[in-house]
# Entry
Amino acid sequence: MGKLSRFGVAMDEDLLDRFDRLVERRGTHANRSEAVRDLVRDALVESEWEDSDEEIVGTVTMVFDHHASDLSERLDSLQHAHHDKIVSSMHIHLDAHNCLEVLVVRGTSAQVRAIADGLLGTKGVKHGKLVLTTTGQHL
Ligand code: NI
# Structure
């Protein structure tokens, strides 16, 4: 870590209260400074990936009803089409109808986003999210 700099931030009291409660829920080592640093790192990581050609890793989480028409088959076909980018997948049968799938996707930012958009945009996927991550070497 480099030299620490301090800076002041003006914020609405109500917003700060809510932020403090969020920080508190994170546990004993959490404090405002660490929480703000996390937010800054997140923002930098996101912007770094916008137009980077470097390889990144993302996890795609999705919940869907496997009874819904041919949804399972369509999601499967998409995954087979990108078998070289999807390095791992996990399927959990949540209940009689719902499935949870978590995939790890590796590629350029554009490739990972395109695969995630294709999967999450498939009609019948109830909930989903792409989370991009990094080794943190440049942060
Ligand atoms: Ni299932």
Observations:
- The chain has two domains: 13-50, 56-133.
- The two ends are 9 Å apart (CA to CA).
- The longest strand covers residues 56-65.
- Helices lie at 13-25, 32-50, 71-81, 109-120.
